[in-house]
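Q: Convert this sequence to structure tokens.
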Amino acid sequence: MISVLTGIGTLMIALAPPYVTLGMAAPVIVLLGRIVQGFAASGEFASATAMLVELAPPKHQSFYASTQMASQVITIALASVLVLFLSSTMTPQALQSWGWRTVFALGALIAPLGFYMRAHMSESPEFIATAARPREKKLHLTEMFRQYPAELLCIAGIVVISSAALYMILVFMPVYAVRELGLSTRDVQLTTILCAIVEAPIILLAGVLADRVGRLQIMVPAAIAYALVSFPLFSHLIASPSTMAFIVAQLVSVTILGFFTGPMPSAMSELLPTEVRTSGIGIVFNCVGAIFGGLGPFLITAIVGLTGDKAGPAYWAALTGSIGAIAVIVMQRRTT
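A:
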């Protein structure tokens, strides 16, 4: 159902009437489509994470769950390739009037695919066993907040760094580099594609390593490294903008982020029991991800506008990286 809603929201954006036809109603339709799309996509993360972890063979949970994060990055790469193709083959007028809709029209195909998968997919044995328990022995949602407040806060900290970094590196910075730093649109698009191609296998590698040496043993140094290098890295780019500086900043960031996000889904899953795993992760991911992920570009732009300091992205990266580092350090101390 969530995948169907994602497709519906994407289709709403693709079919939104032109501004000249409906006036202010046109951007409202696009906004509603984005709300439906974002709500559904975020809701899918928790259920997909729980399913992958519960279906994975023993000692392979991190690798199985990491495929979800890798697929997100691959999707960004495919979308960037499509945007580069359209911008290279269409006139600016055609791209602005109707060409951009093709990206969303293709994205709407997730609806029938998601419906087919849900109709033919069984629940995990772990979930079935939990659902069969007597009602009085089950853990309810209200009890989750009472019994696992520290775990939920740790999950929130993890979501802060992962969602903020993903949106900033692969969504916000390409636009910022063109508009504010004056870099070539084509160079920026190619760099985004390169970063996504590099990050996807790193995420899978991190998942494999996490199964062998431990999830937090991979996540803690990655979070600390991101918190330490993000500010000087992006400050240098903003102070001395160039294509090479942009490539270096993006590649270093996605490499570190890949090692963090690979073990992330399985690390969050093991913090909560089966009864509330999907609900707990979903609630935290939706609320925290909406603020630090979806609103991240807006908040960075507001910081730059209010202060006049173009280093806003560097401050944002350092802040969110520090929050994530604190969260995984706390997790490590609680488990040792």
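Confidence is low (pLDDT under 50) at residues 1-5, 19-23.
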